[in-house]
Amino acid sequence: MLDNIRIVLVQTFHPGNIGQAARAMKTMGLTRLTLVNPRAFPDDEATRLAAGADDVVASARVVDSLEAAVSDCVQVIGASARLRSLPLPHYDEPDAMAGEVIEHASQGPVALVFGRERFGLTNDEIRHCTHQVSIPANPDYGVLNLSQAVQVLAYDVYRAWRRQQGRTAPQPGRGPLPDQAQLQHFHAHLERVMGASGFLNQPHARTSEHLHALFARAQPSRKELSLLRGLLSALESHLPESR
């Protein structure tokens, strides 16, 4: 199950932080590292500071965009300060996040996404996430190094996984969850129908963002998403633009 949990680092500037993050991961049983446009990689500094986790560094996947890094994931959690302008579901406590991560990882890949050292994730990058999580810290000095942030969340995930190993009864579910590529197709279909119907006629209302957050909270299964796509197709067939 831990193999289904990946750490995604976006545009890491210092290669040493990649090595230190790999070390933080490996101490908690995580080995899947994805790098989005790192400034310098491969790099000897990353390997040196991995301190025994050089296998995690060596097997890291490098991609050009966050979308490519998470398209197959059933859950994507962005580590950032709470952004109230983006109404995504938010975990105020990492341990609450960790329990759900373990549940989702039993169905497919899950990504924990960390942004740049100096200013984190952009709003556009957060929009590729299904959830946000913040790490409670001293309000007068809540500054964590990138690898420290990885260590905190990785620890909570590992602890939740250990608790899950003690369960004997299977947890009920609603069926497999869709990955992010399937959700993106759904949201594109929804926007197309809303636009053609005349419903989406006030861009300033941020209707699409609120609906995106609604479905992120609802977490429809693949079957439920298929039913929604079928409903949209039926509605679309009755619109003038679709005839």
Key phrases:
243 residues; alpha/beta; Alpha/beta knot; Helicase, Ruva Protein, domain 3; 2 domains; seven-stranded parallel beta sheet; 10 helices; globular; EC 2.1.1.200
Task: Please specify the SSE layout and strand pairing.
Elements: E1 5-10, H1 15-27, E2 32-36, H2 44-50, H3 54-58, E3 61-63, H4 66-70, E4 75-79, E5 90-91, H5 94-105, E6 110-114, H6 123-126, E7 131-133, H7 146-165, H8 180-197, H9 207-218, H10 222-237
Parallel strand pairs: 1-2, 1-6, 2-3, 4-6, 4-7, 5-7
Q: Strand order, main sheet: write it out.
A: 3-2-1-6-4-7-5
pLDDT averaged residue by residue: 88
The helix count comes to 10
Q: Please report the first level of CATH classification, the CATH class of the largest domain.
A: Alpha Beta
CATH topology of the largest domain: Alpha/beta knot
Estimate the helix proportion, in percent: 40-55%
Query: Strand share of the residues?
Result: 5-15%
Give me the CATH architecture of the largest domain, please: 3-Layer(aba) Sandwich
The major beta sheet can be summarized as:
7 strands, parallel
Number of self-contained structural domains: 2
Number of strands: 7
Oligomer state of the chains in this structure: single chain
Structural class, by secondary structure, is alpha/beta
Structural shape: globular
Cα(first) to Cα(last) distance is 47 Å
Low-confidence sequence ranges: none
- In CATH, what is the homologous superfamily of the largest domain? SPOUT methyltransferase, trefoil knot domain
**What's the gyration radius in Å?**
19 Å
Enzyme class: transferase
Domain tRNA/rRNA methyltransferase SpoU type: 5-155
Subcellular location: Cytoplasm
Function: Catalyzes the formation of 2'O-methylated cytidine (Cm32) or 2'O-methylated uridine (Um32) at position 32 in tRNA.
